[in-house]
Structures are given as structure tokens and as C-alpha cells.
Amino acid sequence: MSDNERSGAPADDDLSLPKATVQKLVNEMMPDDVVCSKDTRDLLIDCCVASESNEICEKETKKTIAGEHVLASLQALGFDDYVEEVDDVFKEHKKQQKDRDKKSTRLENTGISQEELLRQQELLFAQSRQKFEAQNQ
């Protein structure tokens, strides 16, 4: 089972540009005797946004495409109507990631009890105090 199926996340189609819009753009741009398959249309969607996002990323001298680059690419490609909704989803995703990261910290992953951690801390303080006092004598 994929992560999308477990988490109830929307299908890829729900996260993409409307196919009817893309088909209209293709029809307007291509000669009348050219027909695009579904795969071609999907590839156009993926490549255009990814390519534009990459260009924006490179202009900012960044090495990783961030969500902000995708939002900017949607605007640059003329999909302003979708930017707000995509931004809302992006913000919700960041919030979920942040909440998930808070749940699992390195301290909790050590498997050491609070009492043992406190004992180790007190021991380190004592050792540090001894070194400090030895240097000042």
C-alpha cells in the first residue's frame, strides 16, 4: 500500500492542473491536424511546471526546487487561478511535517530515562566544575 493510500491523500489528478484547461491550451497552440494523447497531455503538465520551477530556482541560485518555486512557476505560466489553492495545500503540508517532526526528537529516540539523563547531566557539571576549580588554583 502506498503512502497516498494510507494517508488518504488526494490522487495525483487532484494535485495537478485541470486536464480540460491543458487540453484547451494544447488545442489552441497546436495545428488542427495534431492530436495529443492523454500521456502527452500529462507529460506537458509535469514538464512545463517542473521546467519553469527549475528555471526560477536557478535564477535564485538555489540547488533545490522549493514549494515557492513551484508557486512562482504557476504564476509565470499563467495559472494564477490555482496559486492560492496550491499555496494553501503547501502550507498545510509544511504544518503537518513540522508537527510530525516535533513528535520524534533525538532525545526521545535515545531510550534513556529522564532520571538517567539528569544523573548524566549532574555528573558532567561536577566534572566541569572540578576542571574549572583546578585551573583557578
Automatic annotation (TrEMBL):
Write the record's keywords in alphabetical order, separated by commas. Nucleus
What cellular component GO annotations does this protein have?
Answer: negative cofactor 2 complex
Gene3D superfamilies assigned: Histone, subunit A (1.10.20.10)
**Taxonomy, superkingdom:** Eukaryota
Signal peptide range: none
What CDD domains does the entry give? HFD_Dr1
Q: Where is the Transcription factor CBF/NF-Y/archaeal histone domain?
A: 16-73
Main localisation: nucleus
Name under which the protein is recorded:
Transcription factor CBF/NF-Y/archaeal histone domain-containing protein
